[in-house]
């Protein structure tokens, strides 16, 4: 071990971080996807998970996962391109493609890996990628991996995007990428205008539907909700949020998926998802197709909670979805408010830089379809008490 490097760089950097209000620790949580969880031995209502439809413990998913585990064992044993393939994976991809109104789909180890695969396969140093300033870190990391030049446009600002596209009109290879539902703000992309600009400037359009899958467009995402499934070139999503399982996916034209299979580094060089996960994901997708209204019900619930918070004077930062931020500004304010809500039996995330821009620390509520009327009353009461005690 290099003691000089460790002592000179790692020890002081860790100590400096430990003494800031940006320091992170793994919370003392058991069963973190459940509606109610144990936090340091105290039972709390879970408003911090991305298990939006409450499917992670659904009996159909558990049964399908157990059957796959019993039949195939614990591991895939290799990448899909070697021996790590299962008929379950091919069935899942075929059904995902149909569900997304696309020709083909590819399943990856995570949503993060899906974005890395997209950009490592489709972009290179001759490509300019136009990315919303608040896009997920996995998009930015995928662009960096590809060697493409990153051009960031102001959040949701299509006039700014149009200006930037005009400045780069001489570039032949252009990609526009956006989250459809933004994970820290809960707002949605102006997708129709973005698609128009992509067509006008000959740019490939890529959308990440991670937080819209299962919720919008009868579960198919924002592109489907707006009738734009065929107009968007590449659809990225996740199996590990509303679908209650694990992994990511990319759907699009057949040739696009062929390139990802061959050049998507996070796909080519990763061990494939295990069979138990594939079984759960397939069961979740089939549940979603059979119950297309669950996302809409969650959206109605979210509107009622947003209206309550706004009525109390909280700033929900333009959210229109199941993700509801509550602006706090400073890191310490967010952490203090989180602790007060925990005392009320509610677990919410306190999101701080670098996850969000400096000075925009916030509470982040992730609502879920399995919340009961009593749960929602607890949420309203907890924030009412927070307002009185902390935000007079």
Radius of gyration: 21 Å
Number of helices: 14
Count of distinct structural domains: 2
Helix fraction?
Answer: 40-55%
CATH topology-level fold name of the largest domain: Aspartate Aminotransferase, domain 2
**Biggest sheet strand line-up:** 4-10-9-8-7-5-6
Segments where pLDDT lies below 50 for 5+ residues? none
The dominant shape is globular
CATH architecture of the largest domain: 3-Layer(aba) Sandwich
Element-level helix/strand string: HEEEHHEHEHEHEHEHEEHHHHEHEEEH
Number of strands: 14
Q: Can you put this structure into words, describing what you see?
A:
It comes from Solidesulfovibrio carbinoliphilus subsp. oakridgensis. Keywords: Acyltransferase, Biotin biosynthesis, Pyridoxal phosphate, Transferase. One of its GO terms (biological process) is biotin biosynthetic process. There is one protein chain. This protein has 392 residues and is α/β, with parallel strands linked by helices. The protein has 2 domains: 22-51 and 293-390, Aspartate Aminotransferase, domain 1, CATH 3.90.1150; 59-290, Type I PLP-dependent aspartate aminotransferase-like (Major domain) (Aspartate Aminotransferase, domain 2, 3-Layer(aba) Sandwich). It has helices at 3-18, 59-72, 87-99, 111-122, 137-146, 158-167, 191-200, 222-225, 254-263, 265-268, 275-290, 294-312, 331-343, 373-390; strands spanning 29-30, 36-39, 42-46, 104-108, 127-132, 149-153, 173-179, 204-208, 234-238, 248-252, 323-329, 346-347, 349-351, 361-366. The strands form 3 sheets. A 7-stranded mixed β-sheet has the order 4-10-9-8-7-5-6, sandwiched between helices. The chain has a 4-stranded mixed β-sheet with strand order 1-2-3-12. Helix 4 (111-122) crosses helix 9 and helix 12 (294-312) packs parallel to helix 14 (373-390).
């Amino acid at each position: 071990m290099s003691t000089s490097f460790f002592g000179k760089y790692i020890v002081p950097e860790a100590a400096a971080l430990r003494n800031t209000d940006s320091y992170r620790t793994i919370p003392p949580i058991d069963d973190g996807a459940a509606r109610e969880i144990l936090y340091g031995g105290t039972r709390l209502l879970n408003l911090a998970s991305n298990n939006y439809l409450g499917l992670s413990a659904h009996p159909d998913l558990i049964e399908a996962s157990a059957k796959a585990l019993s039949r195939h064992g614990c591991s895939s044993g290799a990448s899909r391109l070697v021996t790590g393939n299962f008929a379950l994976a091919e069935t899942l991809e075929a059904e995902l493609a149909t569900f997304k109104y696309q020709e083909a789909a590819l399943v990856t180890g995570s949503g993060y890996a899906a974005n890395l695969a997209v950009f490592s396969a489709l972009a290179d140093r001759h490509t300019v990628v136009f990315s919303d300033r608040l896009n997920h870190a996995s998009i930015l990391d995928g662009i960096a991996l590809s060697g493409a030049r990153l051009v960031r446009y102001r959040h949701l600002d299509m006039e700014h995007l149009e200006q930037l596209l005009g400045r780069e009109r001489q570039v032949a290879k252009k990609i526009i990428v956006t989250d459809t539902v933004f994970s820290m703000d809960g707002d949605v992309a102006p997708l129709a205008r973005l698609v128009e600009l992509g067509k006008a400037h000959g740019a490939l359009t890529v959308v990440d539907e991670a937080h819209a899958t299962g919720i919008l467009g009868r579960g198919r995402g924002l592109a489907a909700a707006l009738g734009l499934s065929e107009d968007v070139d590449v659809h990225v999503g996740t199996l590990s949020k509303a679908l209650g399982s694990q992994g990511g996916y990319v759907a699009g034209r057949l040739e696009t998926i062929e390139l990802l299979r061959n050049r998507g580094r996070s796909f080519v060089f990763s061990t494939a998802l295990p069979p138990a996960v594939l079984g759960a994901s397939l069961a979740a997708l089939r549940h979603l197709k059979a119950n297309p209204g669950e996302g809409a019900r969650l959206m109605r619930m979210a509107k009622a909670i947003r209206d309550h918070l706004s009525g109390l004077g909280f700033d929900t930062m333009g959210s229109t979805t199941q993700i509801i931020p509550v602006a706090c500004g400073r890191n310490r304010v967010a952490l203090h408010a989180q602790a007060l809500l925990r005392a009320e039996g509610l677990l919410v995330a306190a999101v701080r830089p670098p996850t969000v821009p400096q000075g925009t620390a916030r509470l982040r509520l992730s609502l879920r379809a399995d919340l009961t009327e009593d749960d929602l009353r607890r949420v309203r009461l907890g924030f009412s008490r927070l307002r009185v005690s902390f935000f007079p």
